[in-house]
Amino acid sequence: MYDYLIVGSGFCGSVIARKLAEELDKKVLILEKRDQIAGNMYDYPDENGIMVQKYGPHTFVTDKPEIVEYISRYGGWHEYVVCTEAEIDGQLIPSPFNFKAVEMMYPPDHAAELIRRLKARFPGEERVPIFMLAECGDELIQEYAERMYQKDYIPYTCKQWGIPPEKLDRSVIARVKIVLSYETKYMQQKYQLMPDVSFTQFFGSLLDHPNITVHTGVDALEHLRADTKTHTVRFQNGEASVPVVYTGPIDELFGNCFGRLPYISLDIRNFTHSEDYHQRTPIIVYPQAEGYTRSSEYKYFYGQKAEGTTVSFEYPMPYDPDAPIGNIPYYPIINDENLQVYQQYRALANQFHNLYVCGRLGDYKYYNMDAAIERGFEIAGEIAAR
After folding, report:
1. Domains, the chain
2. In whole angstroms, what is the distance from residue 280 CA to residue 192 CA?
3. pLDDT tops 90 at residue 351
4. What is the pTM of this model?
5. Which range is least confidently modeled, 63-67, 189-193, 326-330?
6. Which residues, other chains included, contact 29 with Cβ-Cβ below 8 Å and sequence gap of 6+?
7. Is the pLDDT of residue 125 over 70?
8. Rounded to the nearest 5 degrees, what angle is found at the Cα of 214, between the Cα atoms of 209 and 217?
9. How far is the C-alpha of 360 from the C-alpha of 330, rounded, in Å?
């Protein structure tokens, strides 16, 4: 008999499981639909011995030392700073766009004047959303913003999300800012890390506790029933009503009764090459290419010494649970319309006294890994308080 049931073994589910098992001495059962732990962070050695991230590139980033201390309990980590390029008009330029990108796209005098104005208009700013450039009132800066918006943000957004930028919440587009220096780091966070071995090994250590049992390849929704009369989520054909932590798509938990929430999925295709490295940077984004958005060379990420190299290409597509490919929900499509539907599901979930919903899919929120861990802390705290 278990004290808690957790659906999903990504960051939220696994952190909560460890907290309950270790700090509250509770027996926890994790049901994972996929045949592996670690959610979208799952990685594995391919046929050439190169560690590959099955669900696309991930680097652990955070500004919070307490988060670094926590993950370091369950495995070693080393600093790894991601550098990225974008292919625009057949030319590879730094991404996010920095002063070097400006110099590559404009004649020298024009570039120098644009850089001077950017420094003057945004003193002390390291990175700013493209919207700030577009609305600043300086014609030269606004032309630069419009150029990048047309050549990068619009085509990339339409391809990645399947909708025009104006139908997507601004926070999503603002995640990638314009860099007001020659800085080449893709991300700003103080701590940028990769596991010494693998993300899968880290999750294995996190879940390695005598009070935790993990069953993979099990669709929890086949064993759960939301009883609207008693406001209880029941497990195993209604025979038990243990507390349930659910990290899957919230709409699917309730049979899509308010309609499906849309997510973006990915078709990820891996290609091997005989040379040591195929790309000059770990990641290249392709706003203007047909179909695919990004390529990742994993040999860079892990510092591997294997012969040859593996590069993956990502082809975005709408999430369809019935499709033979693209049936993993990666990213919630956040806009006002979808959030209104989500709030209906959240209000319904709040009526069930033994249910805790969290995670990127449960909260319908674009979490980074450190935020998912914090969300796990929050839910574990709520459970402990009860």
Report:
1. 4-73+195-262+323-385 (3.40.50.720), 84-179 (no CATH)
2. 20
3. yes
4. 0.95
5. 326-330
6. 2, 4, 5, 6, 213, 215
7. yes
8. 160
9. 9
